[in-house]
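I am sending you the entry underneath: sequence plus fold tokens. Let me know what the token row says about the fold:
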Amino acid sequence: MSPFKKRSLSIAGHRTSIALETEFWAALEEIAASRGISLSQLVAEADAGRDGASLSSRLRLLALDHYRRNCP
């Protein structure tokens, strides 16, 4: 895996920074594009649906779940 890449996004009206591996950012961008939404919208959805877990963990699990369901 490559080193972490930090991005700043606006979620629910506030700015936040998230650090993920480059591969996860690429996967999340692909998922957002497949849904026809922005990366910020995808992250906001993940943020709204997390139950106390860290946002970075929730995003990794979102990517894992997406590929488990969509890849044979």
Remarks:
- Helices lie at 22-35, 39-48, 55-70.
